[in-house]
Amino acid sequence: MFKCSISKASLQAIRGDVLVLSLFENEGISDPLMKEIDQRLKGWIRQLLKNKEFRGKVHECEWISVPTGLGIRRILLVGLGSKKKFWIDTARRVAGTAAREITRKRFKKVTILLHGADGTDVSSKALAQAVVEGTAIGEYQFETYKTEETSHRRTKIQSLHLLAPKGESLSALKTDAQRGLILAECQNQARDIINTPANEITPKRLTEIAREEARRWGFKVRVFDLPEIKRLRMGGLLNVGRGSENPPHFVVLEHAGRKRNEAPVVIVGKGITFDSGGLSLKPSNSMETMKYDKAGAVATLYSLVAAARLKISQRVIGLMAIAENLPSGKAYKPGDVVRTMSGKTIEVLNTDAEGRVVLSDALSYAERYNPKAVIDIATLTGACVIALGYDAIGMMGREKDSNEIKAALKKAGEFTGERVWELPLWDEYYDAIKSPIADIKNVGNRAAGTITAAAFLGHFTEKYPWVHLDIAGAGWLEESKPYLSKGPTGVGVRLLTQYLLDLS
């Protein structure tokens, strides 16, 4: 990850290869330093605007060669779009666009003038954090398995220097910029692990990564292997993992915070390191990306890493239910009845609806903490992609006890750009998963698949306030977006960490 520094905006503070200047659409030049730079360029930026060669449309980019004396090689103009539509994630997205342009040109040292807070609802502190996040997340590349050097290979940014508006506290801006760097690093580490294929990230290897991160950042970890899972009678996790030669694991993480005796927030993550569908086998084109079915557990792990690194005062427990869902002679079968840790029984109608089955035991385990809130995060249903596409996280919870958590997650989502959209979870939806031979069945009919999956989980969360986050769409992109490349997004890390920060 690059080094980040900050100073007051001045010509003397400009350094590196590239200076990034951002402009609103049809707003002209208002920033004092930008005006001074334009004078050095003999009015070149104003001329571009006058001739409409650069309009400031969101994500629009224009490179300018720089004469000697400014201490940089190039200026990159990038558009912020309409000032009326500007929000915190615009800054993040535009920074990501700039980062991709810069690394494509193979520049490494970047200075960015913080511009956009004046006349908007975005504070300079939030802007500093968002710009750092967008730059770091936007420059992300996963090239672990590439062995050939090519001329098309992008570089990595080595340093980012922020120029702060006059009148702003540098120490406050530095704190927020550093927070952005930590959060982006945690998200990118999550993306690395999700990107790593299942032949390398087995259930055991994922537990080893959890141990490594816990040792590095000073939070507690406990790993339950197969005998302990059997002792706990986690029938859901056991049965899903039965078809694989790699046995399931259950991981408990704990960030103590500053109030060790307070009721914790428990985050529960689905960690299917590979999902073939089991005996209800997926088609091959649906299976090829299923290394990403561990995204919920990985987001859980790196939310705990972020909590430890940021020294969040709230006590946090992370639970990772980890298994590999494969077909074999030992695999669980459609028609089986599974007894879970809670004692409730599940009629299995589809072995590809395995995520909710492993989460049933993890959610039951969460009871022992008497939590103030439980949030599960999972790539749970393809139906969520159909309902909400790739931009929103599906959010559900019981009306009577989860409204406060949902409101806090919605607020955190607006700040981080990892937005949630609530779907109803009325009593009527629970009827769809009633089983004639067991307590519940693991799938309903075709209607409202995302909601009935949440209703299934609701049977195991009756003793505490609970919210379910379905990241099946938001967790993996088929096409690149401004600061997120195609593939796993690491979604949930910044959302959950912001929720914890707000609680603290």
Protein model, in words:
Helices cover 36% and strands 20% of the residues. With 504 residues, the chain is an alpha/beta fold. Strands 7-8-10-9-13-17-14-15 form an 8-stranded mixed sheet, sandwiched between helices. It has a 6-stranded mixed sheet with strand order 1-6-5-2-4-3, covered by helices on one side. Strands 11-12-16 form a 3-stranded mixed sheet. The radius of gyration is 24 Å and the shape is elongated. The relative contact order is 0.11. The model has no long low-confidence stretch (mean pLDDT 95).
Write the layout of secondary structure elements.
Elements: E1 3-8, E2 18-24, H1 32-40, H2 44-50, E3 61-65, E4 74-81, H3 88-104, E5 109-113, H4 124-138, E6 159-164, H5 170-195, H6 203-217, E7 220-224, H7 226-231, H8 235-240, E8 249-255, E9 265-275, H9 284-287, H10 295-309, E10 316-325, E11 337-339, E12 345-347, H11 355-365, E13 373-378, H12 382-388, E14 393-397, H13 399-416, E15 420-422, H14 427-430, E16 440-441, H15 449-458, E17 466-470, E18 476-477, E19 487-488, H16 493-503
Parallel strand pairs: 1-6, 2-4, 2-5, 5-6, 9-10, 9-13, 12-16, 13-17, 14-15
Antiparallel strand pairs: 3-4, 7-8, 8-10, 11-12, 14-17, 18-19
Helix pairs in contact: 3-4, 4-5, 5-10, 6-10, 10-16, 11-15, 13-16
